[in-house]
Amino acid sequence: MKFMFLMPAMIQPLEQAIRAHYESLPAGERKIADVLLEMGGDLAAYSATELAGRAGVSKATATRLVRRLGFSDYQDLRQQARSAGTGSPLAELRGEAVAGSLGRHLEHDVAALTLTLEGVSALDARRAVETMVRAKRLWVIGFRNSHALALYARELLVQVKPDVRLLPVPGQTLAEDLSSLQAGDVMLMLAFRRRPPMTGKILRAAKASGAEVVLLADPSLGDVAEEASVVFRCLCRGANLFDCYVGPMSLLNYLCAEVALALGDDAQRQLRRGEQLHDAFGDFGF
Amino acid sequence: MKFMFLMPAMIQPLEQAIRAHYESLPAGERKIADVLLEMGGDLAAYSATELAGRAGVSKATATRLVRRLGFSDYQDLRQQARSAGTGSPLAELRGEAVAGSLGRHLEHDVAALTLTLEGVSALDARRAVETMVRAKRLWVIGFRNSHALALYARELLVQVKPDVRLLPVPGQTLAEDLSSLQAGDVMLMLAFRRRPPMTGKILRAAKASGAEVVLLADPSLGDVAEEASVVFRCLCRGANLFDCYVGPMSLLNYLCAEVALALGDDAQRQLRRGEQLHDAFGDFGF
DNA sequence: TGGCATAAGAAACATGAATTTCATCTAGAC
DNA sequence: GTCTAGATGAAATTCATGTTTCTTATGCCA
Fold first, then answer.
1. Which residue in chain B is spatially nearest to A84 when comparing CA positions?
2. Which of A218, A238, B75, B193 has its CA 20 to 30 A from that of A45?
3. Which of A97, A100, A249 has its CB closest to that of B245?
4. Chain B nearest C-alpha distance from A92 (Å)
5. Contact positions of strand C to protein Cβ (< 7 A)
6. Whole-model pTM above 0.95?
7. Domain count for chain B
8. Which nucleotide is nearest to B72 (CA to C1')?
9. What's the complex ipTM?
10. What CATH number does residue B63 fall under?
11. Does residue B286 lie within any of the structural domains?
């Protein structure tokens, strides 16, 4: 278990408690346990309410897990996490640099991520979020590598918004779906390089329909980008053979989270509904 | 690249604010400032009430210091301390930071990317690459968010290797595809949290078939991960509602590029064939 | 000296966190 | 079918945190 070796020893008692109970935890409590495992040494900085929210369960469930794990209350658990954590051992354990090609790759990707996000204006981000929030329907579209990003974005958005569609539908032509695009709809388009020729036509068709377009592209997309309401230019050149998508992925994650935030209670309701169905379907066993 | 060497600087924005005001701080507020400087990266785990008590001054004085340092309230300060705990060394090297929630998001994602890739041993990476290179067939599998990553990985690999398959096939059950899994095959599995229950079964079935498994997962995947030949544990916790996948995405990009490199002329030939077909189909117009 | 500005803590107040209670649902046993 | 145990979230409740207000003390200046 290589990764565990790198975790600070300070959280081992809590982690052991979680793992000892994990198999027998009811679904809701297991969700919080997952969150606790991910937070690792940082959990003391978060309230039980936040952790519960992150896990998509109630505060009451959080309290029950805390009790089940053997702590008298959350403050007890937090106290243990704190007293075990003096300083920043994670930082100290890592005296070593990553060498070679992986190190160069990391260096490149950190720079791509940073430059992309630093090139985003808060105004553009807010406009994109507002646009997507007010959308009656959201259409997420991307081809080839952009399709993986579109799939990801759609997966996030559909958790918090009721009508989010992914294009292209496998094996189908686009005209049928695009024919119902109308004012009030929003298209989130991912259009990175090596795009099919019809990308620009889709963009123009969307605009002509009255729908708004939020566009993530790379700098090679020329003037046609002006058809979109909001455009984000991401750096995608890789350090190697393949293009690098950490920038767009991070930006999508951010925008979708901001959409959820702006939706407020509506997003929470949608999330809850989805979680209830997940539970009913037994979707997450471990 | 000594990112971790710079990690003690993770509270620099707060520390700088304190030092900028220090000379002009009234005595009581200076006592709390001292405590803040002492706590360093741990301060987010403590309440303002506790910090004030530790400094021997009133809560009101703590609130005043927080305001004097430019934070809107203690929660604002704590939020920054939490985000700064996974700070952005590159931004600091450049003497600039992106402000607000986007800046905090960037800081978080840079840290997640860095921690994930730094947790990868060159030996594991090489073994994963060798495993995939020698695969007669490559099966890439992931569910939900992991499916977007699986799609991405498959898209990269299929450019350089002739038989790369994506699972699950939409609308189909897995057993038919998995029944042909055999020794000599390799399964690249993406298994991040909120996995369907059958993930472990698939992993075991793959092993039982004689195929090898290269697994990317998060720390919550327990002992079943031992069934895989190589395991990469990625940090996925997000700075917000949604999980963060910049780490896995970057790692996949790296591994696939290394596969291409290791395949050498074979990869070049495959690429050329694909490009010729793209040209014949008129796939890229602009 | 008086006036003013600032610092500080106590207390009041507002808010949010966490626990408890209650109602409902589900699954399993009989 | 009924009954029971357990899980869960909403709502009520409790409690702690953090901010604001008020009062008092101190230091400086005219």
1. B42
2. B193
3. A249
4. 8
5. 6-11, 16-21, 26-27
6. no
7. 2
8. D19
9. 0.58
10. 1.10.10.10
11. no
